[in-house]
């Protein structure tokens, strides 16, 4: 399943794709929300690994506009709950992720992204 926590780490690695390859852009998505147990300590430890601007942009493209433009310096319980929702409860079940740089499309079927490249597409 493609959750935004995973999506925030995915980039295009197709041959000759060296710029504007992150974040991949969702299209034609089927979005499912699945509740998950909140773990504030995990979220706080994971914050430094996030590309905040990419997360906010992606969440908004999927219809969730509650994340602030800038990462809060201090987190309220409500803000952590919403971050949890965006990162761990929003699942893209079907659709595509497209590279802004080269246009390569990575399909998502049954919640699984196909990140495999053909031999001629592999960056060396």
Automatic annotation (TrEMBL):
Domain of life: Eukaryota
A Pfam family that the UniProt record links to this protein: Trm112p
Endpoints of the signal sequence: none
GO biological-process terms attached to the record: rRNA (guanine-N7)-methylation; tRNA methylation
InterPro entries from the UniProt entry: Trm112, Trm112-like
Family: Belongs to the TRM112 family.
Subunit structure: Interacts with TRM9.
Protein name: Trm112p-domain-containing protein
Organism expressing this protein natively: Cutaneotrichosporon oleaginosum
